[in-house]
Structures are given as C-alpha cells and as structure tokens.
From TrEMBL:
Transmembrane segments: none annotated. GO terms for molecular function: DNA binding; DNA-binding transcription factor activity. Keywords: DNA-binding, Transcription, Transcription regulation. This is Galactose-binding protein. SUPFAM superfamilies: Periplasmic binding protein-like II, Winged helix' DNA-binding domain.
C-alpha cells in the first residue's frame, strides 16, 4: 500500500485550518463501508464528481492521500484508517449527544449504553440497573451482550459508555481504565438423564466421548476447555458444534447427549434442575478475570457516571468468585 509522506506536523487546531466538515467525516465512513466512490457518493445523496472533489480538496489541504484509488475501487491507506476510525467515534458521539438531549428534553435522566460479556449480565448488571433506576427512574439504558473482542472495539468507536469484559490482547491497555471484578467460574452442563448425570466423578476422558457444543476456536471458554483436555492428555471430542449462542447450546444439550460449557452464574439462572445437570470436575474451572472498562481520556455523561458509581458499589458488595475460593485439585 503506497503512502504519500509530504504532510508536515499538524497544529492542535488543524481541523479548522483545513476546514474539516461533518460531510468529510460522513464521506470517510461511506468510502470505508462501500469501497467504491460511486456507491459511497450515492449513499450520501451526492454526485460522484462532488464526492471526489470533496475528498481531493481535503487531501490537498492535509498534504497527504487518505484513500488509494485503483481499478477495483477505493480503500483507506494507513492515514485513511486513522481518519476513518476517529470519524466513526466522532459521529457516534454526536448521535449519542442527540439521544441524551432528546432524553433530557423528554424529562428523562439521559441515556447510557453498556456492553457486557454473559456472566455479569445476569448478576452484576441486573442488580446495578435495579438500584440505579431507584435513583434515576427515567434513565434510558441499553445493554448489549457479546464477547470481549467485539465489545472493546465498539467501546473505542463510541458505541458504548463502558463495557464489562476483558481487554483483548490486540488492544493497547493504556487506552483504558480497567477495574477488575473477578474470575468467571464455568460449568460443564448436560441434560438431566444424560448417561454421565448420576456418576459421582465422571472423568474428562468419559466426557470427551460425547458430542460437545462450544464457543468457536479462539474464544476464552473454548481455550480453557482445549487447555484442560490437553493438560490431562485427553483426545478432544470427535464432534464439536461451534457456536457462541448459549441458547443454541442449551437446546442441543436438552435434546441429546451433547455437553456444553457455560458460565456458572448463567447455569444457575438458565439450567433448571428438572432438565439439566452440572457435572462435577476434579478442579475448579474458571477463565481470566473480567472488569469494568472505560476509556481513559473520555468524560462520562451524568447518566453514565451515575451508573458507573452504582456498578462500583455492587462490585464492592460482590463476594469473590467461587472459582477463586475453591481449592484447585490440579
């Protein structure tokens, strides 16, 4: 990928000097999404010549090319990737500003968006939301549940005010404030009448003879299971269904001899003893700690700050994870 390197050092108010407009930011995103100048222009109700002129004028003022033009279309170079990333964050922040202003205008206490991995969604966040709504009954809160590698980039792009997850290894931890909550205890679950359900201490080798439904390779719980089998020199199951959807996994478990691995808190909430069993294991199983993550150089809205305060209160009241307390038999 070729780069033009004639750009000098930009002053703090560079965006004023180059006359940066919101239309430029919208064009950056449209070009990144469509990778085609004609389609990007059409999505913004612009003509292709007008879009080309808008981009070219800004690149000229900056003294650097942001997008590479070629026969297959157009794509951001390294400079363009920086511009696109920050454009997404700026436009997302502006949208959130509108949401908060609308909420305040309607007599509400603002709006908060939070992302979380599964375990705290059913324990920590549910308690925090109940408490914060006693203080701010009109606070609008949206909660998205996903895995850490999806949540943290969305936090960086401004889609969330905070997330409860882990910092992925491909992210610079210096960009975040991480407040550890605790390890996530996990359980191996089967149906109530599974052949292993009433064994006092089924071995991993016995479990591995049955089908499993697991998170996709690379996911944290999947890594823990893979390591556990490797550590005990057990051949992995011959049939594994890869899915990050817990309801799909539990449906398979309920209807067959499939086993699955889920958070202990989620198992207690969703796994009715009349239908499911948690298999005993020789050692306490857990995955690395998760925590409350916010952006280091980002000021929270009043509603987000209030929710963060309540989350910290609930975190302080929460006992150590059972995985941390249990003796490790390994």
């Amino acid at each position: 990928m070729t780069q033009r390197t004639t750009m000098g050092t930009l002053p703090p108010d560079w965006f004023l000097k180059v006359r940066l407009k919101l239309r430029h930011l919208q064009l950056f995103l449209a070009l990144d999404d469509h990778r085609n100048l004609h389609r990007a222009a059409a999505s913004l109700a612009m003509s292709q010549p007008a879009a080309s002129k808008l981009l070219g004028e800004l690149e000229g003022r900056l003294g650097v090319q942001l997008f590479e033009r070629h026969s297959r279309g157009i794509e951001p170079n390294w400079y363009g990737e920086v511009a696109v990333r920050h454009a997404r964050h700026i436009l997302s922040s502006l949208q959130q500003t509108g949401d908060e202003l609308n909420a305040l205008g309607a007599g509400n206490a603002g709006a908060v968006s939070i992302g979380t991995v599964m375990a705290p969604a059913v324990t920590l966040i549910s308690r925090a939301l109940e408490r914060v709504h006693q203080q701010l009954p009109n606070l609008k809160v949206s909660v998205d549940v996903d895995v850490s590698p999806v949540l943290v980039p969305r936090l960086l792009e401004g889609e969330f005010d905070m997330v409860i997850s882990r910092i992925p290894t491909d992210q610079d931890p210096s960009r975040f404030v991480f407040e550890e909550i605790g390890e996530e205890a996990i359980s191996i679950v089967c149906r109530r009448d599974h052949p292993l359900a009433h064994k006092a201490s089924p071995s991993l080798a016995e479990m591995a003879t049955y089908p499993w439904s697991l998170q996709p390779p690379g996911a944290l719980m999947r890594q823990r299971v893979d390591h556990l089998l490797m550590y005990h020199n057990v051949t992995p199951p011959a049939r594994i269904i890869n899915t990050s959807d817990i309801l799909v996994s539990l449906a398979l478990v309920a209807r067959s001899d499939t086993l699955t691995v889920i958070s202990q808190d989620v198992a207690e909430l969703l796994c009715d003893p009349e239908r499911f069993r948690v298999l005993p294991t020789e050692e306490a199983l857990s995955v690395q700690p998760y925590g409350l993550i916010t952006l280091r150089q980002h000021r929270l809205s009043p509603g987000a700050a209030a929710l963060t305060t309540v989350l910290r209160e609930v975190m302080a009241e929460q006992p150590l994870s059972r995985a941390s307390q249990a003796p490790d038999a390994s």
